[in-house]
Amino acid sequence: MEKQQLRSQNWFGKKGKDGFIYRAWMKNQGIPPDMFDGRPVIGICNTWSELTPCNGHFRELAEAVKKGVLEAGGFPVEFPVMSLGETLIKPTAMLYRNLVSMDVEESIRANPIDGVVLLCGCDKTTPSLVMGACSVNIPTLVISGGPMLKGHWKGRDIGTSDIWRFDADNKMGKITPQEFVDSEACMARTQGHCAVMGTASTMAVMVEALGLSLPDNASIPAADARRKVLSQLSGRRIVEMVKEDMTLSKILTRAAFENAIMVNAAIGGSTNFVIHLLAIAGRIGIDLDINDFDQFSQGIPLLANIQPSGENYMEDLYYSGGLPALIKEMSSLIHNEALTVNGKTIGENCASTEVYNRNIISTLKEPFKQESGILVVKGNLAPDGAVIKPSAASPELLKHSGKAVVFENIEDYHARIDDPELDIDANSIMVLKNVGPKGYPGMAEVGNMTLPKKLLLEGVTDMVRISDGRMSGTGFGTVVLHVSPEAAVGGPLALVKNGDIITLDAYKRILQLEVTEEELAIRRAAWKLTEKMQSRGYVHLYQTHVEQAHLGADMDFLKGSSGSKVTRDSH
Ligand code: FES
């Protein structure tokens, strides 16, 4: 590509006053003149923040990327965007995913950037950055922060999924409150994101399966020196991608999305995958539908023995051959010809890999579990669909009818769940309303409600739970999520009453409220919105424009791309 064709030259290549201004204030950072000679300018979009502990090592990764960019003859420029730390942000990081995507999109377009490296880690930092970059569509490469090393406590390995177990054990007096606190530091003991196949790991797998990262991006631990090497190599590669004009839309084809769905099934990925992949597809203009997740998961067994669907951790996946070795096991199923950022196809990237531990990566013939993927259930309770992850559910509950025990919102749940008088038994179905995109707002990760203490004490470990919210990717149980339309827009979930019979038949994809249409019509006529809608600020914008879960919960006006062209161009 000719130097003058680079978009950065519309800034740094200018003569006269404008060019003076564009260059002079960069030079105050100690940048020599030859950096403005028409070489590719590579943005490093950094989500480092001390409030996003999973991304706390990203300054080091950015330095490694810079080295690579310089080695390849590029000009690296690091810039921050809003960072979403899953553990601290309230009411939920998901509320801000779309906001960050706007930050990323506008930051890339507005600046002299020819190619961009996205540093992604904690859950929402991946989809928000990829969504924003898709709406600009310049050459883009993703580096994930990598998983933490597994935790150790009292002689056993632990990870994020244990929080739910420890919480239940603490409630039942199986561990002391002090032991509960002591386990904290033993769990999160190194840099990196959650070590299980939670949403962050799922997103890291997603970008690798989509072809947006170099091979092995998903599983190299954050603390492993090879994470820095991958970052440096990514820095070198993005410069070449700019020269090849390898934009996102050349990689993110329909085949790449289908690959990502199949790989997600094989690794037992988070249900959050659905909502994020739909939103990414909407930005890049690929026609993806919630039913595709069910269809392309069909016949894909669980190959990865990683928590919460299995027993192990992301580092074990890496030591066993990594994601490329797992994808090679699926070579008879996936689109091997799909292009990836290194210029090779996904099939070529995986061809020479080997599996070193069959307890971590199984074969298609003898999979770790037959149940896998994401099932999409529908019925009069979820006309537009709801999702369930069978590999994290109790098989005997995947077909179940029970009496609804209804919580009108999360506060109602917290107030009554441990009331000894609560009329609930192991066969009941817990229903939580108003935790969807508009209702919460931001679709909170509260769908895997902790069971009532009195049932935990009886030894009950799982019950069917239904909500319009999400579940942490580290969570587990027979949990029906993302019910669409949500209660806060008057979806049928809003009409459920205590004692109604609900039937879940995941095998037949059914979620049915056993109440007559006449009765539902009466309830619908009497329904009133109980949740508060905000009248100002970003939350108002979000509640006004967010779409329902089955569409990816993006905001209606953000779908698609505005390209990389700036609209006005002068000082
Ligand atoms: Fe950041 Fe789990 S809390 S990845």
What report would you give on this structure?
Among the domains are: about 180 residues, 3-Layer(aba) Sandwich (Rossmann fold); about 180 residues, IlvD/EDD C-terminal domain-like (Glucose Oxidase, domain 1), CATH 3.50.30. By secondary structure, it is of the alpha/beta class. The protein starts with 8 loop residues before the first helix and ends in a 26-residue tail after the last helix. About 35% of the residues lie in helices and about 15% in strands. The model has no long low-confidence stretch (mean pLDDT about 95). The longest helix has 19 residues. The strands form three sheets. The protein has an eight-stranded mixed sheet. Bound molecules: FE2/S2 (inorganic) cluster (FES).
